[in-house]
Amino acid sequence: MEPLVAAGTQFMREVNAAAVLTRLRAEPSMSVSALAKAVGLSRQAVTRALNALAEEGLIEFGSLDRDSTRAGRPAQLVRFRAEAGHVLGVSISPQDLRVAVADLCGTVVASEAVQFGAHPSADEVVRTLLSTIERTLAAAGRTSLWFASIGTPGIVDPACGVIKLIPSMPGLTGDVLLNRLKEPLGCPIYLDNDVKLATQGERRPDAERREDSLVMLHWGERVGAGIVLNGELYRGASNDAGDIGFLDLFEDGGSPRSRHPHGLGPFEDRVGGEEIVRQATAAAGRAGDGEFLSRVEAAGERAFEAVLAAFADGTPAAVEAIDVVARRFAKGISVIRAILNPRLVVIGGPMARCGEPLLAALRRHLAGEPLDQPVLEVSALQQDAVVHGALLHSLDEIERTRFGLVRTPLSS
Amino acid sequence: MEPLVAAGTQFMREVNAAAVLTRLRAEPSMSVSALAKAVGLSRQAVTRALNALAEEGLIEFGSLDRDSTRAGRPAQLVRFRAEAGHVLGVSISPQDLRVAVADLCGTVVASEAVQFGAHPSADEVVRTLLSTIERTLAAAGRTSLWFASIGTPGIVDPACGVIKLIPSMPGLTGDVLLNRLKEPLGCPIYLDNDVKLATQGERRPDAERREDSLVMLHWGERVGAGIVLNGELYRGASNDAGDIGFLDLFEDGGSPRSRHPHGLGPFEDRVGGEEIVRQATAAAGRAGDGEFLSRVEAAGERAFEAVLAAFADGTPAAVEAIDVVARRFAKGISVIRAILNPRLVVIGGPMARCGEPLLAALRRHLAGEPLDQPVLEVSALQQDAVVHGALLHSLDEIERTRFGLVRTPLSS
DNA sequence: CAGATTAGTTCCGTACCATACATAATTATT
DNA sequence: AATAATTATGTATGGTACGGAACTAATCTG
Fold first, then answer.
1. B289 plus B333 within the same structural domain
2. In this structure, is the CB of residue A142 within 7 Å of any atom belonging to strand D?
3. What is the bridge-based pairing of β-strands B145-152 and B86-92?
4. Which of A225, A314, B56, B338 is deepest in the core (most CB within 10 A)?
5. Which residue from B minimizes the CA distance to A213?
6. How far is B286 from B304, CA to CA, in rounded Å?
7. Structural domain for A73, as ranges
8. CA dist list (Å): B311 to A201, B306, B355
């Protein structure tokens, strides 16, 4: 409800061009007359708009519609040129790097993933990123890049593109990433927390989006939530809404450990990767499963992944451990439910690999709750969730700034 | 971003009229030239828009600007006719009824409050409501009513104006209220839960509204929350977001009572009015304060209010009791903080009467939290919070439907 | 009282859209 | 095969809203 002003009649044309384009983007191709009928304008108004759009390269007049069985002069087909521009989605983590390029319809035209060695330096990350992006763009063909969205762990301020805190890759703190990518990419760059971007990727794509509400729970070594309400990401007053690692739900003093080991919050401490490993080894010790114990021991830093793999195999100690933390995690979900009442809760992050058995455990622990519980899912995209969310964010941004009504409004 | 279509040049005029009106509403009166400069249109365009608006009765050409010290022809002043229409705000509770009428600028021009006897019947409520509205409207003078918003306890579906569940006044269940008011009021009627309406009243009135986030915690016999995020009320997937009475934070089994007495949720059971009375009598028993005990006893159904009054007087047992529940309540706030990170938390409902001492207790219990905590306030409007929120909602609705850009768009 | 200054009004050209009519290309009918 | 019907496109005309320039109106200043 910004105070738009219709200064001059070209405003009208822009409104109509936006409407025509929006309608056309929903279809592979349409005739001018069909567009006019669908959009509610006269044919000639649509033609004018289409000419302007063709000038911009956003649409293309195709061949005649010879396939139609109907009588009469065949229609001139018009097509949205999805290849007129491309968007980039990037996911950065200490383990790997994922890059994808999509056209303006969201179709992924090229993607690549690169694994890092242990503890890559910031410079290595940036250089690998640049070369990977270059290769991916080359694979996508000669394209103009319109927007790039990048997800990283840690605390990010998307307004100025600055990484505030990133313990797993401290070298990326600040505007390093933005500065070194700005020139090579030559398009607006959006930086945000990976969980928040991934959450946007889980939104409903259809018309009901504005009504949608969902919470994505990243569950791994640490725990964090991305929150989408009324169809848009909610950030919170100081940009850390969804910091549920700091939920303090278990005051019964189950463990005598220090309050916040390694900077973990109370909830993470009771359901995160470290606790899962602890629970699993304890369970294995009770059951006398020396084979499993030594396997976890051998995994060293990757003990958590070893437990997850064992869970997939059905190893009893791992199953028992994950059931223990699932009970605690369910309590977190019930709290989120009471406050937010979301339609959907998606489990993402490493724990998503546990799949349906994990969901079953969570549902079991939630069964006694008095309120109706949200739909529970495991992220279908797994490791690609962040890249996917980043691509969708880029497309949203394009839609808002280039295809939307709010293109050249004069504000009062 | 609805697919608006500019069909015909009159669309342009409507957009411009809306812009002119929006600008004018921010000022007591303005000259045409000043408006043109402020809005970015030519003088003629503004004049045309003003003529149309004057036709509708929304503005008025006033006297010349004789106060101006500047040289030249004095300007013709234009004024927004706030008295062109009025809106109604109503609050219904089992104890009382509050009605207020405001003009289109939100200035309250008449209001009235009526106390009920114990347990009024639905018919009594409706009849009292009708006569009170009639008196209030009469006091406001000859006015046309544009919109009415009504807040009631219980579960309300605002989309269809139906009260789903209202244990304190079961006779109002269903569409009774809507049906009996529709004809006499002769304007759109909006029904919603009282806490949700009151919450909207606490939103920032300024331009930052779209960024604002706040939680209003109704704290009385029962506990519920209203949530405003990104400047708009958040309802949740099944319309019961903020049902924090059902938070289950205290699993240490402090009390051996049955799980959900009187339909109360676990959190309400540990911080609500009944528990406060229990704590207060227990404390008085320990301290041997027989005078206080008998005062509470004598209050009968109003024991909770007696304890609140005692707290205001500084009676030790009441202070002690409220400190106990404040500790528990603070835990609820910290959970809300971790998930939502709101800018502001407002305490409303009966407990708001405890004022600053209560806030001090809550802040004390929150001091140890690792995350920065939101601003804590007590509702300044107290019992008028719901009427105020209802008025604001009515005005918002008017702004959206009559003053906004989205007036007569053709949708595709 | 003349000139300066600011405000409001009138006229005209431009741009947009809608309606109506003419033309083009195809299918169905005779 | 010629003609009618159908559908899509292209072109002319009229109405309306905007902006700019020129003009009129009302006040102040010297």
1. yes
2. no
3. parallel
4. B338
5. B237
6. 19
7. 9-80
8. 51, 9, 10
